[in-house]
Design a protein that fits this description.
Shape: globular
Order of helices and strands: HEHHEEHEHEHHHEEHHEHEHEHHH
Strand content: 5-15%
Strand order of the largest sheet: 6-7-5-8-4-9-10
Largest sheet: 7 strands, mixed
Mean pLDDT: 90
Helix content: 40-55%
Number of helices: 15
Distance between the termini: 60 Å
Low-confidence stretches: 1-7
Length: 399
């Protein structure tokens, strides 16, 4: 039974706050179990022929003909004769196309010999800018597109971890998070804290509250000159698993502390999310200024420049019918010409409603939404992911 917190003449203290946390944790645990019954873990839906054709960049008629001539294996077919594919089956079709289709390399968009691992930090100084939403949607889209993807949750609040169906306050209370691979004593190899997910081609490294200890420990480690210093710890940790992935996405905390700086120093690209409002843009400006000054200090400490293949600004929670937002988006584009992504991530009830059950628009059953609403949301996140994918391909020297 939940402990009831009532008025206290002595005021609300730490014990009361702890009771709030216990009540919420217990309730969330029950809700998660209800949401994912009868499975213990989340599972991924099947995808329609139209969705698969779009992901593989082939026509639906080509898809049908491949099944008819036997070059594609049969998949689940419903009572109306419509085919539906698991993410693993999409991967198998992609490999068949790469062996038998024209322009075979186009079906395998990931790293080739000589391509360096793309490590992309999703950052902002301010909460509520859709960092986690952008990170998970990009990760899932790229996994479906055939990339080998790893996501790192570098925020002690662990929202991204929860999105993947984990309960960090229960499952990782004793360890098993990114903190274990970054800490200064008894450090574990990154491979030991990577979690396989229900999503084909997509692994993750979870976060938890213990990760907040990294900030204090780093300050102490700097005073003691512990090596490697914070700015190199993630880069070194990634070397162990580098060959296993094409793209790594990092969900950073909404402040410029040692965790974010650790991510920035290990990154090959930055994606800065920003809501097109005056206060949000002013906050982002402060973030960029502070980041610039702090990175210079980091460079002096590690003896090398910190550079990125690209820095892109993603407009999020965008409402095209909102005049002030449209004006601010235009203002951003005029000031940061060429760096602001053409495709914004639209504010969508489909995205927010899916998030209520810790799902994305790629996971939810499309029939549970108004068709126009879900199509608009999918078109938006697909557009953002595809534009950033082009940037990644350019970083690998492809067009």
């Amino acid at each position: 039974m939940n402990e009831q917190i009532t008025g206290n003449p002595q005021g609300i203290g730490s014990t009361d706050i702890g009771a709030f946390a216990d009540n919420l944790a217990g309730s969330l645990d029950r809700q998660m179990k209800i949401a994912f019954q009868p499975e213990e873990r989340k599972s991924l839906r099947r995808f329609s022929s139209t969705e698969v054709a779009s992901l593989l960049r082939v026509s639906t008629s080509n898809l049908r003909n491949r099944h008819k001539d036997g070059s594609f294996p049969e998949v689940f077919t419903d009572g109306r004769g419509h085919r539906f594919y698991t993410a693993e089956e999409i991967g198998k079709l992609r490999n068949i196309l790469a062996r038998t289709g024209k322009n075979a390399e186009s079906y395998l968009p990931g790293r080739r010999q000589g391509d360096r691992l793309q490590v992309i930090s999703v950052v902002n100084f301010k909460g509520g800018s859709s960092k986690t939403t952008a990170t998970i949607h990009l990760a899932q889209r790229y996994a479906l597109r055939g990339y080998r993807v790893l996501v790192l949750d570098l925020d002690p609040q662990a929202s991204l971890t929860t999105f993947f169906g984990f309960r960090p306050e229960l499952e990782f209370a004793e360890g098993g998070t990114i903190y274990d691979a970054l800490r200064y004593e008894d450090q574990l190899p990154l491979g030991q804290v990577i979690q396989k997910t229900y999503f084909h081609n997509l692994d993750m490294v979870p976060a938890g509250l213990m990760l907040s200890e990294y900030e204090t420990e780093t300050a102490n480690a700097l005073a003691r000159r512990v090596q490697p210093i914070f700015a190199e710890r993630l880069s070194v940790a990634l070397e162990e698993v580098e060959a296993n992935y094409d793209i790594i996405l990092i969900d950073c905390p909404p402040q410029l502390g040692f965790l974010t700086l650790t991510a920035l120093a290990a990154s090959t690209g930055l994606l800065v999310t920003v809501v097109p409002g005056m206060l949000d843009i002013a906050s982002m400006s402060q973030f960029l200024k502070l980041a610039s000054e702090t990175i210079k200090a980091v460079e002096e400490a590690i003896g090398r420049r910190v550079t990125w293949d690209f820095v892109k600004f993603l407009i999020t929670r965008y409402e095209p019918s909102d005049g002030p937002q449209t004006q601010m988006a235009g203002y951003l584009r005029s000031i940061l010409a060429g760096q602001v992504m053409t495709e914004p991530m639209l504010k969508s009830t489909a995205v927010s409603d899916a998030g209520m059950t810790q799902q994305t628009v790629y996971e939810v059953d499309p029939t549970q939404f108004i068709r126009k609403t879900i199509d608009r949301a999918l078109s938006s996140v697909d557009g953002v992911a595809d534009e950033l994918e082009q940037t990644i391909q350019l970083a690998w020297g492809r067009r």
